[in-house]
Amino acid sequence: MASLEHSPASPPAASDSGRLLDRLRSRSDQVIVLVLLFAIWQALSLWLGEYWVGSPWLVVTRFYAGLVDGSVLYHAYYTFAEAVIGFVLGAIPAVLLPFALRRLPIVTAVLDPFMVGGYGAPKLALAPLFILWFGIGIESKIALVAITVFFIVYFSALAGVRALDTRLVQMAQVAGANERDVARHIIFPGAVPYVFTGLRIAMPYSIGGAVVAEIISANRGLGYLVQLSAMNFDTTGVFVALIAVTLIVFICNGAVDFAERRLLRWRPASDAKLQASV
Predict the structure, then answer these.
(1) What is the rounded CA–CA span in Å between residue 241 and residue 162?
(2) Which terminus of the chain is less hemmed in, N or C, by CB atoms within 10 Å?
């Protein structure tokens, strides 16, 4: 009898150990890939010469020196501020608009071709226009990031709202739920995974948009650092700026993943794993 009483506790422990092993295996594979990338990088540097491809050691040394004297942090902070502010300004209306249009299918149908056109329009072509309107300061970069993020998150949130099973809404209404209860307890929880998928996709685009806008016209930022290094034929400086951009992407994506885990703790582990693999 004692063995029967304690038997239900073994499957969760086994599943926890299995998840831990999977996580460790995934991390070890990532380390192997990182080592291979550095090996290829070093081989290209030796083959083509450090003038064309800066060696990993020179890049790391220059990056550390930039951290110590504050130059890399100065430019990285400017790019980070542009990306985050533009991300927030673009994501908030993109999340709210599909929920506001949920009960207005005619308005949604009217806006749909314009949204598709805006999504397909090359955002890089809009950068000179935003610089003309808002100047070469931070405002033009924020505007470019915001419009880039808006369409990505909007279509993800819209897909989440449209994927809702109408039978759940009908059952809730039969049970006496009002529109506010339906939106809070059914529509919003069902669409949140789609929203976070859009946010995760849009985050790197926001940083990339800020960097591209800085390359076109800026006097600071990582994009400016790339442009300045390229004009001086300094490939090591270009790689230093690219590493800083990559680290910002990792940090921002980690923040989005943390917020997703906090807000979606109610999901089964299998659903969360499936969503992460998409």
Answers:
(1) 41
(2) N
Identity at 87, one-letter amino acid code: F
Cα–Cα separations (whole angstroms), residue 52 to 71, 121, 232, 249: 23, 34, 12, 25
The SS3 assignment for 266 reads coil
Q: How far apart are CA 1 and CA 63, in angstroms?
A: 64
Contacts of 278 (CB under 8 A, 6+ apart): 197
CB 44: neighbour CB atoms within 10 A?
Answer: 13
Which CATH code, of 1.10.275.10, 3.40.50.10350, 1.10.1760.20, 1.10.3720.10, is assigned to 52-277? 1.10.3720.10
| pTM for the whole structure | 0.77
Each residue's pLDDT tens digit, 52-90: 777 788 888 888 888 888 888 999 999 999 999 999 999
Type of residue numbered 247? L
